Amino acid sequence: MGLLTSSFSFQLPALGSVSPVYGVGLLILSTLLLAKVLSSLFFRSSRNKLPPKVWTFPLIGGVRKFMKGPIKMIREEYPRLGSVFTMKVLNRNITFLLGPEESVHFFKAPESEMSQQEVYQYNVPTFGPGVVFDVDYSVRMEQFRFFSESLRVSSLKGYVEHMVLEAKSFFSKWGDEGVVDLKSELEHLIILTASRCLLGREVRDQLFKNVSDLFHDLDNGMQPISVLFPYLPIPAHKRRDEARKQLADIFAKIIKNRRDSGKRETDMLQAFIDSKYRASGRYLEDHEITGLLIAALFAGQHTSSITSVWTGAYLMKNKQFLEPVLNEQREVMSRHGDKLDYDILGEMDVLYRAIKEALRLHPPLILLLRYSHKDFMVKTREGNEYRVPKGHVVATSPAFANRLPHIYRDPDTYDPDRFTPGREEDKAAGAFSYVSFGGGRHGCLGEPFAYMQIKTIWSHLFQNYELELLSPFPEIDWDAMVVGVKGKVMVRYKKRSLKTEQ
Ligand code: HEM
Ligand SMILES: *[C@@H]1O[C@H](CO)[C@@H](O)[C@H](O)[C@H]1NC(C)=O
Ligand SMILES: *[C@@H]1O[C@H](CO)[C@@H](O)[C@H](O)[C@H]1NC(C)=O
Predict the structure, then answer these.
(1) Which ligand is nearest to the CA of 197?
(2) What global pTM score does this model have?
(3) How confident is the model at residue 45, as a pLDDT?
(4) Are 120 and 136 a contacting pair, CB within 8 Å?
(5) CA-based nearest residue to 137, from 314, 323, 370
(6) Which subcellular locations apply to this protein (predicted)?
(7) What is the pLDDT of residues 459-491, one digit of tens each?
(8) Rounded alpha-carbon distances, angstroms, from residue 461 to 31, 104, 314
(9) Distant-in-sequence, close-in-space partners of 337: CB < 8 Å, separation ≥ 6
């Protein structure tokens, strides 16, 4: 589950009242209507024009339309209503801002105008108390600072060493040739790596099974229904709460041991142990460290493994884009042999664009949400100006925006060259043309980590194996909370040495 989002992540307080039209006399009704029409004709001012509405059944509002899948709904409504429109879901107005110009305010507005806390509340029982969406913005800001400090380049270099070792040891178990489900293999490798880089050596070496089982329960405790009712007493939620408790116990012991022994490690756990709140000067409490580590794992794990799978699938299918990737690996090997580290991975631009393009077509977080605390104006690409009232949930969609044809040529086609100097379609319409990692005030803090992780995997695989996709090209699993690949992705591999082939 992403730290933040899902296909329909927003909090819906109790059902609102539905206005009874019945019993109102026809005459009064038509008079009212006439008055409304007239006033809208004569006093039409853009400062008061609300975005067009998606037609929905009264009562349950857009629930049905929304449950069929937000992307399907957006694809249907966009041609009719344009790039900004409102949809009623239960008692909530959700306003969609679809496109790089339209979503500027979404990404850049200060927290006092556009906030995350309300719409991402459902994460609280998973992450635990005292962290992220359970705390005030001032504290949350400091916690985001802990994340970004733990992920800065100096630390990242150490994490990459772990990534490389994990990948080598993982694939060494493959043998010379065989057939695997790439999806489950990469999921597994990424949780091993995340354990090592984020949760630390103790978990990776001694408690991997315990902790990954507990994370599994946390993960399963995040169901679509949990978004609406995070505390509903269902078995999945009970297991989630139990797992959360046990994780806290495990981490409390590990943290105590580290503090007592004075031994230091290169991992996110260590970074959090060493971090201090500026406002109070205090160190983080154990339960806060546990919560932030859980949040990091939720933000980074499925997102990265999904992106790895898509990248591999596209390259195996499109030989014209695989060849340049392999050539780049050959060049890199001619300089560095089979060594991989932060700087060497940084030289792999072709591989980078191949990943970025897979992620453009398949952002795992398909919908990003905020809660609007203040009216704001938005101008659409079609030239309309609307006022979005406070109290609306505001949504933008990487999955939709990343495929807009006025930004991306042949938007549904896999073409990593669209990012090359000269084309740079991802910058065509400003900073928010490419939003797989969000952007602006709350852009992903783990982006460099994610690229390092995925590059490590594919660099190692391409340098050492010939790969063939046996399954049909994968379909999108729209029903998942973090949208990924449906079914298995069977791949045949055969050991080879890239260098000697040339
Ligand atoms: C391919 C992998 C990844 C994708 C596609 C991704 C995507 C995103 C997106 C779209 C957001 C913005 C959410 C919003 O605006 O509501 C975000 C935020 C965030 N991501 Fe990632 N992410 C990835 C990997 C990671 C990793 C590996 C980590 C940490 C190790 C991470 C940590 C975070 C954090 C802490 C935030 C919150 C930033 C904030 O709200 O200020 N992400 N990510
Ligand atoms: C949703 O918008 C309508 C006007 O279009 C308004 O009457 C209603 O109060 C709004 N509901 C909420 C919860 O903001
Ligand atoms: C880890 O799991 C093993 C076996 O399932 C169990 O014996 C052990 O007590 C667990 N350790 C912790 C710290 O929970």
Answers:
(1) 1
(2) 0.91
(3) 55
(4) no
(5) 370
(6) Membrane
(7) 999 999 999 999 999 999 998 889 999 999 999
(8) 72, 39, 15
(9) none
Out of 210, 216, 253, give the residue to mutate to test ligand 3, the one with the largest number of ligand atoms within 8 Å of its CB. Answer: 210
Q: By CB neighbour count within 10 A (0-12 exposed, 13-18 middle, 19+ buried), where does 103 fall? A: buried
Residue 261 buriedness (CB in 10 A; 0-12 / 13-18 / 19+): exposed
Say how far apart CA 62 and CA 87 lie, in whole Å. Answer: 7
Distance CA 499, CA 461 (A): 13
* Backbone angles phi and psi of 465, in degrees to 5: -140, 150
Of 411, 448, 445, residue with least CA distance to 426: 411
Split at pLDDT 50, 70, 90, the class of 25 is low
Strands 92-97 and 393-396: parallel
Residue 162 scores a pLDDT above 60: yes
| Cα gap 180→167, rounded to integer Å | 16
116 Cα distance to chain centroid: 14
Q: Which atom of ligand 2 is nearest to the CA of 93?
A: 1
Each residue of 95-119: pLDDT tens digit? 999 999 999 999 999 999 999 999 9
Report the pLDDT value the prediction gives residue 8, as an integer from 0 to 100: 38
Nearest atom (ligand 2) to Cα of 92? 13
- Positive or negative torsion for Cα 473, 297, 365, 55: positive
Domain range summary for the chain, segments of one domain joined by +: 2-47, 63-500
Q: Partners of 476 in the beta sheet?
A: 485
User: What is the mean pLDDT of the segment spanning 221-245?
Assistant: 93
**Closest ligand 1 atom, residue 198 Cα:** 30
Nearest CA to ligand 2 atom 14: 391
Count other Cβ atoms within 10 Å, centred on residue 310: 23
User: Measured between alpha carbons, how far is 192 from 170 in angstroms, rounded to an integer?
Assistant: 9
d(CA 212, CA 404): 39
Q: Please name the residue that has the structure tokens 């983080």.
A: 284
Choose the CATH number for 63-500 among 1.10.1040.10, 3.30.70.330, 1.25.40.10, 1.10.630.10.
Answer: 1.10.630.10
- Helix 208-220 crosses helix 235-261 at what angle (to 10 degrees)? 140
Q: What's the pLDDT band for 292 if we cut at 50, 70, 90?
A: very high
DSSP 263: -
128 within 8 A of 18, measured Cβ to Cβ: no
pLDDT at position 35 is 60
Closest residue by CA, ligand 1 atom 16: 368
